[in-house]
Amino acid sequence: MSKTVNNRPGQHFIAGLFLGLPWTLSFSPFQMWWVGLLSVLVLPVVLLNISSNASSSSGRSNRPTSNWPLFLGGFGFGLSTFCIGIHWLYISLHTYGGLMDWFAVLSVFLFSAYLALFSGFATWVYLKASRTKARSSFSVLLPLIWAGAWTFFEWLRGTLFTGFAWLSLGDSLVDSPFEFLLPWLGSYGALFVLIFTGSSLIQILLMIISRHRSAHTLSISMHGLVALVCIGGGVLLKNMEPKTQATQAWSVVGIQTNVDQSIKFDPDMIVSNMEKVFGLGREGLAKLPANGTLIFPETVTPLLWTDQPKKWPEVFRDFGADREGDVIMGAALQDGQDYYNSIIHLTGNEQGKALEVPANRHAKRHLVPFGEFIPTGFHWFVRMLNMPMGEFTRGQGDIAPFLTQSNAVVSTVCYEDTFSGEFAGLLQDAKQEATVLLNLSNLAWFGQSWALEQHAQMGRTRSSEHRKPSIRVTNTGLSGVIDERGQWIQKVPPGTEQAWPAQIQGRLGITPFAKIGEKLWFGLWLVALVAFVFRFRAMKAYNSGLSGNL
Known about the structure:
By secondary structure, the chain is of the alpha/beta class. It has 18 helices and 12 strands. The chain is globular, with a radius of gyration of 26 Å.
């Protein structure tokens, strides 16, 4: 066997590794959305070209002898993508979690390798349906299969074992000219259409520059028709903006406490930290109209709500007393034997049990592994970390929006808003249609890294998908107000302590994606699956000499 064929797995892996390097540039703070899209479109072309060259050098046909190199190409792509894109996990593990530096680096690498498996499987599925003799390598079904494979495995990465949806390419589209697709198709649906269209155009280009261009005339026409239909549909949707209507403006003051994670749970600093929080609350109260809402970030108090000095809950409550306004804040609540990472709504009238376990609250449903619950088999790992509040219970039941100033506010805690389909389900299950979205977070675990901008961008995508404005109140950043198209109206500088006033114009109206949710994506993936099965069977027959060109 030739040296070229022996090196094929390494060539695929290295090519994927290099193509994945710029992926993070697609997301905030860089917002070069086109980089990731171009990478996804080029990846299968490069991997197929490596296979074709290796087969030609060895005198073999273009039929696959092993699927291992195909998987490695996508795996290498994902490995460089996540090693760069989520490197900030090292900060939470080592700087604040106390994990040994070498072990923190190893942990981030192994987690990145796990996430890379999904892009590996995506390329494996696509290339398994692609590799055949040259004259049948430009099937009109291939762009459909690639769009389905990539978006499905991205969704699966954000779903399996509670999921990790970070750096999903559809979320970068909020800063692209294709933002208008999000309220119709959601992040994965919009990405599906763009990959399908882009792959069709690339296939056309490859056929035009091919030495056998004349043999591809019919295929060029079919690909061109598909691309024109997609582009025409896009133009139509761009001129059919989902209808929403404005509600009464909501006056708020957000409190960005800027308490560093290294001192948040320090027993010697807890009292002084809370004095700063209360001082910022009084400053914010002075900036509010009588009916305004004072908003504090996730777990603003480092102690359980019932374990802290009795006066502290009363101070928070009294920020809403003797006026028409209210208070929304994050706190760790105990209810019976269960502990919840919660957002509570105080109107200033709560007494006794009503203050001890506030009835009007949202308990976080999508918990963070290791930070909020311990996955089976990983207790040994968590014991090595210095992470308080690590065993919460998942919230359940219907969502009751917070009603304030004629607005219905649906709230999420931290990275609950990173899961597009799950978030759509959350709004569908709400007892009343939301007019404003609210996210409370504590991202101090990640310092002033890219994580802050990346997380905010995913929240901005949820606003765009549902055409609802949102407000983000965090401990160390990013805080601010986002309009219904996912663009910043007001952005508070991270790493600063501020009581910042704002007005949010709520909106009523349900987008097509909000009505359908994940079912839309499964419909697209079903079509792609049918295309894969049809293509694979026809390709198998063709390679056996039993059928003609597909």
